[in-house]
Specification:
Length: 144
């Protein structure tokens, strides 16, 4: 299957060494190497792709519609990153994607109060765009 190149655009290394990619769907289709598992954070169902996917219903600038289901998918994606190329994507690739990556960082051991800073330092300095997205990351494990 293979893994992401840690220096490729959008790839973030978690503290455990697992690599995940975040990207913007508005910038066009994915390029090779393709993900083996994709998580799409959109208000409406994403288009079909030839790899396994999960959809988290998540309107722009908001939070996941089903937070317990989102947490389950985050945990599954973190597990999948041990054996393949996991990608997270939303329209712009910063707010929802950055928030999801911060949630992965929390699940991978980054203290919740440092996860947004971690993602901004290792993925995109503008990641996690709204105060409620920051609060969601901070309370991920206490409220789901």
């Amino acid at each position: 299957m293979g893994f992401w190149d840690k220096d490729a655009p959008g790839v973030m290394e978690l503290p455990s060494g697992r690599l995940v990619r975040g990207r913007s769907l508005r910038r066009g289709p994915a390029v090779a190497p393709f993900p083996t598992y994709g998580v799409y954070l959109l208000g409406s169902e994403p288009p079909d792709v030839p790899w396994e996917t999960r959809w988290i219903k998540w309107p722009d600038f908001r939070l996941p519609a089903d937070r317990p289901a989102a947490l389950t998918i985050f945990r599954e994606a973190l597990d999948r990153a041990t054996s393949g190329r996991v990608e997270f994507a939303c329209g712009g690739g910063r707010g929802r994607t950055g928030t999801a990556l911060a949630c992965l960082a929390v699940l991978d051991g980054v203290p919740a109060d440092q996860a947004v800073s971690y993602v901004r330092a290792h993925f995109d300095k503008h990641a996690v765009e709204t105060p409620w997205q920051k609060r969601y990351v901070l309370n991920l494990l206490t409220r789901g």
